[in-house]
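Sequence only, no structure available. Ideas?
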Amino acid sequence: MKSHNILNSLLALIILVLCSDAIAQHSHGRRNTIELEYESNPTHDEVLKTSPEDILLRFNDYVRLVKLTLSAEDTLNVPIDFEFSNSYSKVFIQELPKLRQAAYYTVEWAALNPENIIVYGFFCFSFGPDARVPTTIINARNFPDNPIQRENPF
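Reply:
I predicted one. Tokens follow.
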């Protein structure tokens, strides 16, 4: 009787493994993210003397840039007129409007490789005479229980 229970348990385990493989194969080999090397200008955590005139992204593989956003202090969206293109490239340049002084800015991006696998990323920068490294500001933040809603100046 014991060997029958062990055999049934082993059979159930094999079926479970086979079903999970079938479910994984149903995704047609796509994964949510892949490793993709990139460089940015400004670089992550860079402190600039003046506001940058553009954002540059350089990838190690051809991608379609599907998202590019800019926010001030992670709360205020800054319109940058990014337009999606079906073209693949390794280099993307986005002109920026004149940026107002803020503690830091965050750029978020998403790209699709030729197999339509999506990759996400972000980087932060700051500028001005009193600018500090963005992650030191972010890491030192205290979040209030009721955050103050600020009007978007952009």
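The beta strands are 38-41, 46-48, 54-72, 76-78, 89-95, 105-112, 118-127.
Hope that gets you unstuck.
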